[in-house]
Amino acid sequence: MTTVKIIRELPVSETGASQCLVQKGTDYFVVSSIHAPFSGFETLVFPADSKGNITDWGEVAGGRGADRADAIADLEETR
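Below the sequence we write its predicted structure tokens.
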């Protein structure tokens, strides 16, 4: 299992999601948490570049009801 390192906090997204940039090995990801209307709180993890730009909108970890720690733990266990 490769440890995920939090690199830095990112600006709040246009949709109001709090986000941070993390690194796992040589790969970067954005961890994005939001309270989504009608579905509740969720935290999703998306592939990104080293600047924090999401490169693929297919989430790779996290999910509904997950907080940042849950999503990072999920990312550490996968990929």
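The chain has a mean pLDDT of 94.
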